[in-house]
C-alpha cells in the first residue's frame, strides 16, 4: 500500500510529496531486513511508508512540531518506528542502520555525510534537495568517498480543475557504497 499525501496528518513542516517519496524509496530499494535512518523525518511520510514496506525505522527530527506530527502519524498508521528528537549529528554514530534518507540537514550536511560513512553497514544514502549548493556538496563529498552516484531532478505538475498545478522541483540523489 502506497499512502497518498492527503492521508498524512500535516502541519507547518514541509512534507516529501508522493512522487518524490515513491522514487526516493525505490532508490533506497527498501526490503524486510533493512534498518532505515530517516534524517529530518518531518511528518514521517518516508519513515511510515518504509515501515509499511517492511523496514525497521529510526526517525530523527530536531523540530518540536515535526516530532508531534511524527507521533500522530505513527499512531494513525499503527507502525512501529522509533522516533528520536534532536540533531541527527548527535545520534548517527550510536545507531545501527543499513540505509539512510536525508530529508533535511539544517546546514550540517557535510558532518552528517561523514558520520553516515563511518557506519560500515550502511549501503545506500538517498537525499532530497531544493538547493543546488547542497546537491553539489552531496555529489562532491560522496565522489571523494568513492560512492557510486545517481542524480535526478523531479518536476511534478498535477492537473486540478483543468489547470496545471506545479510542485517545487527537487533533486533526488543517491550514493551507493562502492567499496
Ligand atoms: C523537508 S522537511 C522533511 C520532510 C519529511 N521527509 C517528510 O516527509 O515530512 C526537513 C526536516 O528536517 C529537519 N532537520 C533539519 N536539519 C536537521 C538535523 N540536523 N537533525 C534533525 N532534523 C533536522 C527539520 O526540522 C525538518 O522537519
Automatic annotation (TrEMBL):
Keywords: Cobalamin biosynthesis, Methyltransferase, S-adenosyl-L-methionine, Transferase. InterPro entries: Cbl_synth_MTase_CbiT (IPR014008), Cobalamin_biosynth_MTase (IPR050714), Methyltranfer_dom (IPR025714), SAM-dependent_MTases_sf (IPR029063). The keyword Transferase applies. Its EC number is 2.1.1.-. One of its GO terms (molecular function) is protein methyltransferase activity. CDD domains: AdoMet_MTases (cd02440). It is an enzyme of class 2 (transferase). Pathway: Cofactor biosynthesis; adenosylcobalamin biosynthesis. PANTHER family: COBALT-PRECORRIN-6B C(15)-METHYLTRANSFERASE (DECARBOXYLATING), COBALT-PRECORRIN-7 C(5)-METHYLTRANSFERASE. This is Cobalt-precorrin-6y C15-methyltransferase [decarboxylating]. It comes from Caloramator australicus RC3.
Amino acid at each position: 500500500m502506497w499512502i497518498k499525501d492527503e492521508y498524512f496528518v500535516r502541519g507547518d513542516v514541509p512534507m516529501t510529496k508522493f512522487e518524490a517519496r515513491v522514487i526516493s524509496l525505490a532508490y533506497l530499494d527498501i526490503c524486510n531486513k533493512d534498518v532505515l535512518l530517516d534524517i529530518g523525518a518531518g511528518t514521517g511520510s518516508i519513515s511510515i511508508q518504509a515501515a509499511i514496506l517492511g523496514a525497521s525505522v529510526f526517525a530523527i527530527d530536531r523540530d518540536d512540531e515535526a516530532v508531534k506530527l511524527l507521533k500522530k502519524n505513527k499512531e494513525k498508521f499503527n507502525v512501529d518506528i522509533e522516533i528520536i528528537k534532536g540533531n541527527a549529528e548527535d545520534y548517527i554514530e550510536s545507531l545501527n542502520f543499513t540505509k539512510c534518507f536525508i530529508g533535511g540537514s539544517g546546514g550540517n550536511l557535510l558532518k552528517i555525510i561523514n558520520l553516515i560513512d563511518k557506519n560500515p553497514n550502511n549501503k545506500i544514502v538517498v537525499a532530497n534537495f531544493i538547493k543546488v549548493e547542497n546537491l553539489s556538496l552531496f555529489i562532491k563529498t560522496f565522489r571523494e568517498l568513492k560512492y557510486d552516484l545517481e542524480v535526478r531532478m523531479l518536476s511534478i505538475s498535477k492537473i486540478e480543475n483543468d489547470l496545471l498545478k506545479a510542485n517545487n522541483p527537487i533533486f533526488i540523489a543517491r550514493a551507493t557504497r562502492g567499496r
